[in-house]
Amino acid sequence: MADVAVIGIDIGKTTFHLVAVDASGAIQWKKKHSRAQLMRQMEGMPGCLVGMEACCGAHHLARELVELGHDVRLMAPQFVKPFLKSNKNDYLDAEAIAEAVQRPTMRFVPAKSVDQLDLQALHRVRERLVSRRTAVINQIRAFLLERGIVFRAGRRHMAREMPLLFTDERSTLSPRMRMILQQLWGEWRGLEADIVTVTKEIAMIAAADEGCQRLLAIPGVGPLVATALVAAVADGTGFKRGRDLAAWLGLVPRQHSTGGKSTLLGMSKRGNSHLRRLFIHGARSASLHMNRECGHGPWLDRLEMRVHKNVAVVALANKIVRISWAVLARQEEYRPPVPIAA
Q1: What gap in Å lies between CA 122 and CA 231, rounded to an integer?
Q2: What is the per-residue pLDDT across 224-244, written as a single tens digit (0 to 9) for each?
Q3: Separation of alpha carbons 215 and 322, rounded Å
Q4: Is the CB of residue 79 less than 8 Å from the CB of residue 100?
Q5: What's the pTM value of the predicted model, to 2 decimals?
Q6: Which of 44, 53, 50 is nearest to 76 (CA)?
Q7: 1-35 burial by CB neighbour count: b if 16+ within 10 A, else e?
Q8: 58-94 confidence digits (pLDDT tens)
Q9: Which regions of 38-152 does DSSP assign to beta strands (E)?
């Protein structure tokens, strides 16, 4: 055991495959453990470098291994894949993890705290409820369209018209269809109430968190965006600069350069899609309501003269992300840009 310097762990639901290597990279042993056996094995070993893929259950296991004195590092699975040799099985996966974790240029994922995971769970629950609500609304619209009834676009307008539909005696809806629509309308109202409850809880967390309060001062950042960012990156110190965070969220152009010729394509759309979508929605709202005579208004006006408005919105989202990183990592208050005199 004293010769072991690095351990690669391939995580499963009930079984874990371990590959231990020494300082020279030679494999010392391979083992398969249950969760209880894994903890007993790691508890009896001196502190070493432990590599795992950042997947479901990895953050909890990482916290437990850190308490046992090990140096735990999580990696994105797509960065481990190039180190997999020949065929694929659990031991080869663990061996690839052990090799990848030693690379000096490897990018690691910070282990999330319990509070971060709880906040992330709230956002995922809300996202699922919103998706279900959209599905119910679309189904109601489809049923009504088959009966020649069309409501104008907009969820709130349709919510006002639904009660009037059930009391309209001139409606051509059959009794069975009325019953189906009433059931869907009840499901819609239940989902709406659940979404409001989760949103209020997220707003309460944002009001109590110091980092979220600093983020809320940035145009385009609300309680949803602030809490989602804190849940994903904590204080942002896992990134060296704001542009790294923007690249991680996929808000930068995808590059395909060769032969010394630089070629930039559309936005890469990598990383956390939920957080990226929230930032883009926030940037779109900010572009519609901001004062164009101060702050980022003049810059956005000049940009919209050269590019499409959607491109300008993504560029504004990129700028908001970089400002958010500076506010979080440096623990400073947001300072609006001072307009440059003509």
Answers
A1: 10
A2: 999 999 998 888 888 888 888
A3: 11
A4: yes
A5: 0.84
A6: 53
A7: eeebbbbbbbbeeeebbbbbbeeeeeeeeeeebee
A8: 999 999 999 988 999 999 988 999 998 888 888 999 9
A9: 49-53, 71-75, 108-109
